[in-house]
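Crash report, auto-generated. Payload:
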Amino acid sequence: MKRTRSVFWFAAMVLSAATLWAQANHPLRMVVDDPRPVASGAEQLEARYGWVITYEDPQWLAPSEIRDVTDSVRRDAQGLSPQMRSMLPRVLIPRGGSFVFSLPLNGSSDQLVVVQNLLAAYASAGNPGTFRVLQSPGAMHIIPVTARDATEQSAPQHPVLDATISLEKRSWTGAAFLEAFCKQLTLVSGQRVEVGIFPINTLGQFQADYDAWDEPARDVLSRFLHSIGPGYSWQLFFDPSGRSYYLNIHWVGSLEVKE
Amino acid sequence: MKCKLWKVLRGSVPVLALLLILAAPGYGQLPVPTGETTFFAGWGGGNDATEGRWNAAVFDNLGTNFNGRFVQEAPLPGGGPDTCWFAGAPLGPFINITGGLWRVGQANLYGPDFVGWNVPAVNFYRNVGRAPCGTTLNQQMQMWNQLVWVPYGGLNTGNPNRLGARITAATVSSIRAGMIATRNFP
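Recovered output after restart:
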């Protein structure tokens, strides 16, 4: 009886150890299914490892790469006749897609390689648009490379944040700086860029002397956010309905790991 | 050997004594508010014209002067849903407070705490036919007390404060600690 019990405990211990070993040595699988899968994947890496991974949408213009969600989104369409409903402006979002990606075992992996693998997994799943990653001190930037144009032809993208901008030297609050930055970016890129969601209380109180002279907008924004503190990231999302970009800022520490 | 051990123990006495004093309940603790009163302080400007600015005055039962102390907001679960947001929107959902830090000033006042969507977000949600819509958030106020952040207050006096924002076709509202401010916009 005693021997049977010992064998049982030994087997249980071996099984537990094997399970722990398997968990520790097999990469975690991340399944992404979203209208902006790359942005969502980058967000999950940020939340899990605390890396700063910024994201910029391409211009989603091709009918095959956008989705009409008017019926599910517009509340003002409810109760209207089909004819009246068809006269309302359409609500369009990126078509998006899904992909599966293996997460590294720990955050000490080569960050650039991890993000490159994420982009490769996205592309190999046949999702719309292609992206590349650029590394700068303390951050990685996911930048659009191609997307289909309105005639369904694959077209190279001219990332909005590649535009060079200048801003006068003065004392800015974070919120005023973002407003001026987006206005200037709209002017030089020809694309409307609006300020989206950002930590208003932190940026509203932050005040510093700041300027920019003929610098790529991406560097200006990076430098500015870094001056507030470490861990600030952004997502520049394109709205296919209004054909505008929205610049959303978040603090990486505030993200939660999505299981 | 015995002598060496005694020397080590004897040398540790002042350190141990200091640790005991520091760990004693109440040592080095400064007063913490028992609550706060919220005041509406107007609307923001420019892109923030649709965001309410709120100030608050912290208090305790002894009339303590908290001038110079620091308070911060911390998120609490239970926020949302953001009924303006939808999957694929170019704006993130507004369901968490974003982490403000303030220095308490004269008359125990601190602020402003901005609550609401900015002008581009209000315009976007109206343009895509989401209004009327809104969100709610839970905010826990904490005061820095030597080495730790200490939550203070009760429901709508700091822990938690119910925050919120609403957008209709003609108005925007900002809510803090159960108080609501509404304006016509544009």
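Post-recovery validation: The longest helix of chain B spans residues 2-23.
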